[in-house]
Amino acid sequence: MRNLPLRGLGRARAVLAAIVILGGSAAALAAVAHAQQTVRPADPSVTELRTLADHYRRVTWEFQRAADSRRTATSFSYRRSSDLAYLRWTIDSWTRRAYLARDLALHSIRRKLAVRLPAPPGLRISRAREMRYSRRLTLALRRIYPGRVTRQFASARARSDRATLRLWQEREAAAALLVARNAVRQARVVGWLNDAFLCIHRFEGAWTSNTGNGYYGGLQMDRRFMVTYGREFVGRWGTADNWPVWAQLETAARAYPNRGFSPWPNTARACGLI
Questions:
Q1: Model confidence over 45-76: pLDDT tens digits?
Q2: What is the SS3 assignment for the chain?
Q3: 55 near 167, Cβ under 8 Å?
Q4: Given this model, what pLDDT does residue 112 score?
Q5: What is the biggest distance separating any 2 CA atoms in the chain, rounded to whole angstroms?
Q6: Nearest one of 267, 266, 264 to 251, comparing CA atoms
Q7: Integer Cα distance of 18 and 39 in angstroms
Q8: What confidence tens digit (pLDDT) does each residue in 189-211 have?
Q9: What is the value of pTM for the model shown?
Q10: How confident is the model at residue 185 (pLDDT cuts 50, 70, 90)?
Q11: Residue 266: beta bridge partners?
Q12: Which long-range contacts does 151-155 make (Cβ < 8 Å, 24+ apart)?
């Protein structure tokens, strides 16, 4: 190869040095960017911790109302505190209370309405699992009362995973309270018949039963019975296997003054009703 002139050689060395320097700078910039991406986010502020404590306090109280249990008293001292350790302790305390209140509310709903609800997970689970459970529970409760769930409601999300979890926790507590209030209203309307029809249901079938024999739901109603005593429910949801439990019980109670337990001769006899 032909030798380069000294001047050309100097220029080549300068270009090479520039390339090395620039390459090193690019690598350094990339390392800084990576470090910035992997740095832990800043700790929550005092305001954020107070807000989170308020969230779990509200959820606790809502579930306690649904369970018809005494509301946990508080002095709201966390709203005046700037002690991060104390605020975290307060959040943990209200979180445990919220989960306990939720268990009590769901037990009450299951007992009053004889419905199945998703079993709660343990305390120490991932945020994603807790969010999935809260959503499943909310939708299950909404299908009991008021009996429908819109696509927009079911797909709701907030600005972050943390905020989405809080959204569904608030929704599950509100849904439990609605179902509990409806159960009280139903008990006033149906009275002792509620227990009677729940007994009949245990011998008839699942609340979602549709075996193709012309009878539907947990009390095995035929089409004529459904249209006669639950016309608005037929128009809203179709056959009784799609109705919430409260609607099936209310329809049976409407029929009772005219027909007694005659639509269920065998199962009513097994329950000692006739």
A1: 999 999 999 999 999 999 999 999 999 999 99
A2: CCCCCHHHHHHHHHHHHHHHHHHHHHHHHHHHHHHHHHCCCCCCCHHHHHHHHHHHHHHHHHHHHHCCCCCCCCCCHHHCCCCHHHHHHHHHHHHHHHHHHHHHHHHHHHHHHCCCCCCCCCCCCCHHHHHHHHHHHHHHHHHHCCCCCCHHHHCCCCCCHHHHHHHHHHHHHHHHHHHHHHHHHHHHHHCCHHHHHHHHHHHHCCCCCECCCCCECCCCECHHHHHHHCHHHHHHHCCHHHCCHHHHHHHHHHHHHHHCCCCCHHHHHHCCCC
A3: no
A4: 78
A5: 118
A6: 264
A7: 31
A8: 556 788 899 999 999 989 999 98
A9: 0.65
A10: low
A11: none
A12: none
Q: What CA–CA distance (Å, rounded) separates 243 from 210?
A: 12
Q: Are 230 and 192 in contact (CB under 8 A)?
A: no
Higher-confidence residue of 52 and 34: namely 52
Q: Kindly give, in sequence order, each residue whose CB lies less than 8 Å from that of residue 141, ignoring residues fewer than 6 positions away.
A: 109, 117, 172, 175, 176, 178, 179
pLDDT at 160 over 90: yes
Amino acid at 220: Q
Domain assignments of the chain as residue spans, ordered by start: 46-189, 191-270
For the record, the structure tokens of 45 come out as 């502020």
Fold entry, domain 191-270:
Lysozyme (1.10.530)
